[in-house]
Input
Amino acid sequence: MNTEIKKVDSQGRIVLPRDWREKELKEGDEVIIMEEEGILKIIPKKKIDLTQFFDSLEYDDNLVDNLENWSEFENILLKKNNR
Output
């Protein structure tokens, strides 16, 4: 793991080292910044191919009936996945 100390300017900007950008930001120029108590994490945003998840959801007919009400659909789906 590499570590560097960087200054944050008055507008909250930092400069990522060039070699880090070239290595970690190959797929784009966006990052995800996560804040936890006392910690900031900068993670490269990668393009995800969602097609790999197609046909991976198992559900019953009762769930399909609730597609008209998206909130209800989400609630039922979340309850099933938390079991």
